[in-house]
Amino acid sequence: MAVPAALAGLQAEANCPVCLDYLRDPVTTECGHNFCRCCIQQSWADLEDRFPCPVCRHSCRERHLRSNTQLGRMIDVARLLHVTRSKKRRREEKHLCEKHHQVLTLFCEEDLEVLCPECTRPPDHQGHQVRPTQEAASHHRQRLSCYIRPLKKQVADVLRLVGSQERKLLELREKLQDQRQKLTSEFEQLNACSVKCLPSASVMIPGSWDGAPIRLWSLLLPLPLPTPLCSLSLSLSV
């Protein structure tokens, strides 16, 4: 209990006697009392000759206020200790049984509830497996790790499979691109060769062809050849 009492005393000393809150920009008067700078200035706002201390009523002869930076740093520490202590108190309150207001130290395996010693008395949780919370936590961590390990392995296998399929897809795309370039090159060579072998003149072939244009070389050669992409064409007329 000595530490809480010391913290309470420190907090009391860190408060301003005027606003009763933590000192902000603390200053010290001639009589040695500490105030917030704004609080003491407001107390002396309408005074001209004598400036009484709000605590001891000592009459200061002038508005001389000494800044106390060391006290300001101590106030910051006291404020931090107060916040930390409040958080710790709230955490401790969360671990109390709402029904019996005792510390929750037991765990019921059947109902999966955290209990205090009073909760285990009949008829509540009678015949249930109850163990200390730390022991129960260790037991359930081990069970959870047994479930997690195979799941991690399955995830790793799936990731490897996905990576393998992505590599295969990339290889197929590269092969397709190579085949496309190869076919384009062969087509250009074939087209250039067919243009070179064609006669440079065009003729008119009579007959009823419905006006459809045909290539002369496709009629003369014994085997049909691919139609070349060139500007030389023969027109048929009736």
Automatic annotation (TrEMBL):
Domain of life: Eukaryota
Domain RING-type: 16-57
CDD domains the UniProt entry points to: RING-HC_TRIM60-like_C-IV
Keyword entries, A-Z: Coiled coil, Metal-binding, Zinc, Zinc-finger
PROSITE patterns documented for this protein: ZF_BBOX, ZF_RING_1, ZF_RING_2
InterPro entries assigned: TRIM/RBCC, Znf_B-box, Znf_RING, Znf_RING/FYVE/PHD, Znf_RING_CS
Pfam families: zf-B_box, zf-C3HC4_4
Example GO molecular function: zinc ion binding
Coiled coil (residue ranges): 162-193
Residue ranges occupied by any B box-type domain in the UniProt entry: 92-133
Protein name as it appears in the record: Tripartite motif containing 61
Organism per entry: Ailuropoda melanoleuca
